[in-house]
Give the backbone structure.
Amino acid sequence: ADPEPVQDFCVAAVSKGADDQPTFPGFPCKPESTVVSNDFFFAGLSRSGAAAANDSPFGSAVTAGNVEAFPGLNTLGVSINRVDLAPGGVNPLHSHPRAAELVHVVSGEMLVGFISTAGKFYSKVVGEGESFVIPRGMVHFQYNTGGNSTARAVTVFNSQLPGVVAAAPSLFGAEPEIPDAVLAKSFQVDGEIIKLLKSKFRN
Ligand code: GLV
Ligand code: MN
């Protein structure tokens, strides 16, 4: 989904911070004279997210290996995440505006699903060594169906920075908040239900 590279690589000279927004496409390159092998190496997914998953109300932890964490990916059009699910945990409904996602289950088993623009729900229980693909932009999730076991997946994207729209937080946790009347009318429910949902997703 990203633009085609026009050079071998372009190791990002900066990681995205508060004041350094990415240029198009991606980030500025550092000079090749300063590029080292480690720029093409990333160990960030070797750390287990199991403890973080246990601590999370969703029972999940996503460790991102996008260009912000791994500057060598800049302009290469790929990235990788690690998803750890506690027993019964869910990586909650979300979408990626800039990439398809390949979900490869490394251990345990999980229900992986997405909803198409036709409103059809596609899903599959995916076991160790198996893969499922989420088309670009589709709302999706992973849910641990392996009983008392943890589950883990590696997810791979055709973008250096797929972006995440988290369904519930984007609607009920937006800053500033979306008016209750808009949400109540949109969801065809009482304002009290919207207030309850906002209380879960706003600090
Ligand atoms: C899983 O859905 C992920 O975005 O890594
Ligand atoms: Mn995803």
Observations:
- The chain has four helices and ten strands.
- Helices lie at 50-55, 167-172, 180-187, 191-201.
- The first strand starts at residue 60 and ends at 65.
